[in-house]
Design a protein that fits this description.
- By secondary structure, this protein is mainly beta.
- Helix content is 4%, strand content 26%.
- Strands 1-2-3 form a three-stranded antiparallel beta sheet. A three-stranded antiparallel beta sheet has the order 5-4-6, with no helix packed on it.
- Strand 2 and strand 3 form a beta hairpin.
Length: 109
Amino acid sequence: MYPPPRPPAPNGPDTCPRCGDDVIWCVTVNRKAQMVDRDRNEDGNQAVRCDHTGRWLVRQLTRERPTPEAGENLHMPHAATCPVPAPRRTPAPRTARGRLGVRPVRWQR
């Protein structure tokens, strides 16, 4: 039996699950979900467009493509403007592992 298919990534206008602000869920070039602020911002660094299928796509402005192209608008990434940022992950405490012995190699078995 096959596992159930993964649900699709959220896409389109919605609200931020942490702060409740209006955002647009977009798909990046690497097929990851990213939230951007719904309001356009000329100081933004994310070029957002909606393709012919209704999917919202986002790309980072780069040195090679520094300006928005046809049909793209500038937005700010919501992670940079969210008043309730994601909780920071604390690293797992390191435990000193003692050396109990040497693993035998093939000719020592």
